[in-house]
Amino acid sequence: MTTLLAVDWGTTSLRAHRVVDGVVVETRSSSDGILTVAADGWQDALNRHIGDWRREEGAATVLSGMVGSRQGWHEVAYQPLPADAHALAAGAVMIDAATAEAEWGPVRILPGLCHRDPADVMRGEEVQVLGALGALHRQSGRFCLPGTHSKWVDVDGGRIIGFRTHMTGEVYAALKGHTILGRLMVGEADDTAGFAAGVAQSASTAGLLADLFGVRARGLLGELPETGLAAYLSGLLIGHELRSAMATASTAEPIVLVGAQTLVERYRRAAELLGLVTHSAPETAAALGVWQVALAGGWL
Amino acid sequence: MTTLLAVDWGTTSLRAHRVVDGVVVETRSSSDGILTVAADGWQDALNRHIGDWRREEGAATVLSGMVGSRQGWHEVAYQPLPADAHALAAGAVMIDAATAEAEWGPVRILPGLCHRDPADVMRGEEVQVLGALGALHRQSGRFCLPGTHSKWVDVDGGRIIGFRTHMTGEVYAALKGHTILGRLMVGEADDTAGFAAGVAQSASTAGLLADLFGVRARGLLGELPETGLAAYLSGLLIGHELRSAMATASTAEPIVLVGAQTLVERYRRAAELLGLVTHSAPETAAALGVWQVALAGGWL
How many other CB atoms are found less than 10 A from the CB of residue B58? Predict the structure, then answer.
């Protein structure tokens, strides 16, 4: 029986998975993202979250995500494209044994990916894509990972050959929280009609900056109720993201959505309104991807 | 000698002009926008800023801008398109004499404009366009009024026939102040090379949400210095605005830029980088426009 402890440690969250013989048997989530960890607190934080797993199993521990950024435990250099599980394993860094408690043994941090034309970076989503590929028995396709910074990832021959980040989630939060658009809004972005109207508006040729002011104008002129404005803004932004991403698609294959269920469902609805077909990958894709990297690296 | 006191009273600023026989002879600016005025403080605020002008001259007083909004002194209903000076005069509201000090006499507030396909609203810029038309001896053209909410206004036969708002300025402030993009930035948006690179990037087909994340990626990967990132973001947003606005232009006439000199100069540079020809209108356009409305209304 071979056990892997795979920790997806992002800016604002931590998700730890216990993987036994390629099957995710247990998952723990926390909001203890890397921003909550003090400079010398990494080992303690890891102990707090999965110390019991480690002591029981003596398993390999592999971290992915922003924990490998300059703000994380140890900066791990980005790997170039194209990249597969072997490339990620080759780029991993082992935490100095002197800083790890003896009982932990090797703790590895995976690299992210970067490319330069145009400039873009990614940390954590690459293993989710590898895991989704395996779970869906695919070797190619276009993957969408919705979020604060949505990633669109192109895969061919089992390797990541390109990706692009859309700042959709963070732009939504900044506009709702820190511009005049938020002032008319009542409630959250769960109004179905408002969401659909926003997705539809994304077809306009006026440009996103004009469409954004339209959120306010529609509220002022009573075309949308105040309770529908947040959902309208959400639909507008996601619609713009989907249209822009699909405009450069080199494939007619369905989009594979990877991520947390609520957000994936929101993107699925928007895609459906635009006539796009989507598939979904399991939420445990990150752990499955790390398993593949650990196999490729001979760490198991 | 006929005197008009024209006050452009917006959300965050007040600009008062003394106009004698159609010539702007004096201008006062203040940051006392309508948000700084208490519910019963309008008359006092006006007295504080131009009470001396009024007592000397016994002139007509006309207010334009957000002072006519729900958050202003008195809500004045939007007028529909097409609209000219006569339509604005007909839609003006006279402040109840009971609330005005006897010495002031009539104080009028001008309406804004709205249209519904797509929904859009404007308060204050319409008189700037009328003033620019008169100053430049034009009857038609496409006018750009850069700002927190940039307005693009189409004029034909001396009447405003269409307009569109781009939320460029406020989006810039929200992104710089309240997203991860601001964290890498050093200094303000005055780097010429960074600005030009941002304008150039707006030609990409990746979509604005992807281009925005590129601001961070270019910083992380060292493609742009930290001191150039704010200007890059500014150029990117203004470039997107100009491209979107020109994509729907029905005329090949030069764009007429109307507004404060610093911002007009920034837009002129971006337009030049995109191969677009621009003209500039005098900064006193608002006062000249109000003069025309006052003439049309027979208030002088």
Answer: 10
Residue A106 Cα to chain centre, angstroms: 26
Copy the structure tokens of residue A206: 């006026």
CATH number, domain at B31?
3.30.420.300
B250: nearest Cα among B147, B165, B140? B140
Q: What is the pLDDT of residues A19-57, one digit of tens each?
A: 999 999 999 999 999 989 998 899 889 989 998 898 776
Q: Tell me which residue in A178, A210, A240 faces B207 most closely, judged by beta carbons.
A: A240
CA closest to B237 among chain A residues? A209
Residues 6+ apart with CB under 8 A from B29: B13, B14, B15, B16
Q: Hunting for tokens 């061919």 — which residue is that?
A: A156
Contact A175 B179 (CB under 8 A): no
Which ranges of chain A have pLDDT less than 70? 57-58, 97-103, 250-251
Q: How many domains does chain A have?
A: 2
Residues of chain B by 3-state class (helix, strand, coil), percent to 5: 40, 25, 35
Is residue B288 within 8 Å of residue B24, measured between CB atoms?
A: yes
> What's the gap between Cα A245 and its chain centre?
16
Q: B16 and B52 in contact (C-beta within 8 Å)?
A: no
- Minimal Cα–Cα distance from B142 to chain A, Å? 15
**In the beta sheet, which residues pair with residue A16?**
A7, A28
Residue A23 counted as domain residue = yes
For residue B237, the chain A residues in CB contact (below 8 A) are 209
Do A112 and A224 belong together in one domain? no
As a whole number of angstroms, the distance between CA B27 and CA B15 comes to 7
Cβ count within 10 A of residue B95 = 19
Q: How far is residue B52's CA from residue A270's CA, in Å, rounded to a whole number? A: 59
Tell whether B132 and B233 lie within a shared domain: no
Residues sharing a CB contact under 8 Å with residue B33, sequence separation 6 or more, in sequence order:
B9, B10, B11, B12, B13, B14, B66
ipTM for the predicted complex comes to 0.92
Q: Which residues of B244-263 are buried (b: 16+ CB within 10 A; e: fewer)?
A: bbbebeeeeeebbbbbeeeb
Cβ–Cβ contact B277 with A under 8 A = no
Mutating which of A208, A223, A233, A238 best tests the B interface, going by the most B Cβ atoms within 10 A?
A208
Whether residue A232 is found in the same domain as residue A176: yes
Calculate the average pLDDT of chain B. Answer: 93
Domain that holds residue B203: 168-280
Cβ-based neighbour number of residue B74 at 10 Å: 17
